[in-house]
Design brief:
Layout (H helix, E strand, L loop, with lengths): L27 H6 L3 E2 L2 E2 L3 H9 L1 H13 L8 E5 L5 H8 L4 E5 L3 H13 L6 E4 L12 E6 L12 H11 E8 L2 E9 L2 H8 L11 H7 L4 E3 L11 E7 L10 E8 L4 E14 L6 E4 L11 E12 L3 E13 L4 E14 L3 E4 L8 E4 L4 E9 L2
Parallel strand pairs: 3-4, 3-6, 4-5, 6-7
Antiparallel strand pairs: 1-2, 8-10, 8-12, 9-14, 11-15, 12-13, 12-14, 15-16, 16-19, 17-18
């Protein structure tokens, strides 16, 4: 069973939404919303347990956006989408929301969320539904929608379409969405050593040639963190989301980009990340999934090139990125990303050398390096 005493204080035990001293501290939130280990068995499945303790940056950003802007929640109605074990619903209720509708389709998460709501004595404020928001047709208009809708590379396996549905059907005019803005970025990185260890292993697996797998594995981007020192170009914004304006047809996009290399090195991959903002508030909250900050569960997305390209400071990559989502009517699944590019030396000539070729190819200023790769991100 879940032990009492590890959860936030009950409202009748002195919680005051106007007294910031009664809010979770950064250290307390991990203790207060977690569950304990009894009889050598964790009370939550490992993925949920990890999500609480490993999403510090994300969770604290949502927490801050709700608590610092508590005036916007007082006596308001809120929808919380795919809320896991219920933290965001509890935070909304704690700062004075009149009603919170929490939608959680996973049966295990739903059961734990119901229990946590009961333990905190918020049954009259928080209603938990074991379904998707798209399954609901008869609900009052609400003032606020809260959802951690972002996925890997912003869109893969994201809940963006769910928020669009809830916005169009249930959000009052002038209502708020938490968070409401995101920007996706792209840059070039050097990662030759790790790339070699990741892909060349397929050339000889216990004396078996599996090089075919190496070529296929280039189609799958890597979700991982890298050192900011690996960046060798400018950082280019390729896609922006405004949750108050975006439509379903905008989710698939095609964009041109331009990267200027600021050092001479090997271009091993293109890499992407995103920033998130709670912008329609007097106290704006932002967080980033970039390598310039502590890593989040999304880390960064790395698109390795089949062959490294030797670039010099001042070289320019002009390219096009198209993104297509594999989605049904309610959910964005995996995404297919196609990247076309060409690299030019803005001066006289350039030299390119790939991992698999020892010879150097001199290219005069009238010629250019061109490439195209398609990637499938399924998680």
């Amino acid at each position: 069973m879940i032990k009492e005493g590890i959860l936030p204080p009950f409202p009748e035990e002195g919680f005051d939404p106007n007294d910031k001293s009664t809010y979770f501290s950064e250290e307390e939130y991990v203790k207060k919303i977690g569950v304990v280990q009894e009889n050598n068995n964790y009370l939550l499945p490992s993925d949920v347990y990890s999500s609480i303790f490993d999403q510090r940056i994300t969770t604290l950003s949502f927490k801050a956006a709700i608590e610092i802007n508590s005036d916007f929640f007082e006596d308001k109605s809120v929808i919380v989408i795919n809320n896991g074990i219920g933290l965001y619903s509890l935070l909304c209720a704690r700062v004075g929301a009149r009603k919170v509708y929490s939608f959680e389709p996973d049966k295990t998460n739903f059961k734990f969320q119901k229990k946590i709501v009961e333990l905190n004595r918020y049954q009259k404020i928080i209603e938990v539904y074991n379904c998707d928001i798209e399954d609901v047709y008869d609900l009052e208009k609400v003032d606020i929608i809260v959802c951690e809708w972002m996925g890997n590379f912003l869109l893969s396996n994201s809940f963006l379409k769910k928020v669009i549905y809830a916005r169009n059907k249930f959000l009052v005019k002038g209502g708020l969405i938490f968070p409401d803005k995101a920007t996706l970025y792209l840059c070039g990185i050097e990662d030759e050593q790790f790339k070699r260890s990741k892909f060349q292993m397929w050339d000889n697996v216990y004396n078996v040639n599996m090089s075919f797998v190496k070529k296929a594995s280039f189609r799958e981007p890597l979700i991982d963190s890298f050192n900011k020192k690996n960046i060798i170009s400018n950082i280019f914004p390729i896609f922006e989301v405004d949750m108050y304006k975006i439509k379903e047809k905008d989710i698939n996009f095609n964009v041109d980009f331009e990267l200027a290399f600021n050092k001479s090195d090997s271009l091993s991959a293109l890499a992407g990340w995103f920033d998130v903002e709670f912008s329609k508030l007097p106290n704006t909250i932002k967080f980033t999934t970039s390598p310039f900050n502590q890593f989040t569960k999304w880390k960064q997305t790395i698109f390795y090139l089949e062959n490294d390209i030797k670039v010099m400071k001042g070289y320019i990559m002009k390219g096009n990125l198209s993104l297509q989502c594999e989605s049904n009517s309610t959910y964005i699944g995996g995404i297919e990303i196609k990247i076309n590019y060409e690299i030019k030396n803005k001066n006289v000539s350039m030299i390119i050398q790939s991992d698999e070729e020892s010879e150097k190819n001199e290219i005069n200023n009238k010629e250019e390096i061109k490439g195209s790769q398609t990637y499938n991100l399924t998680y």
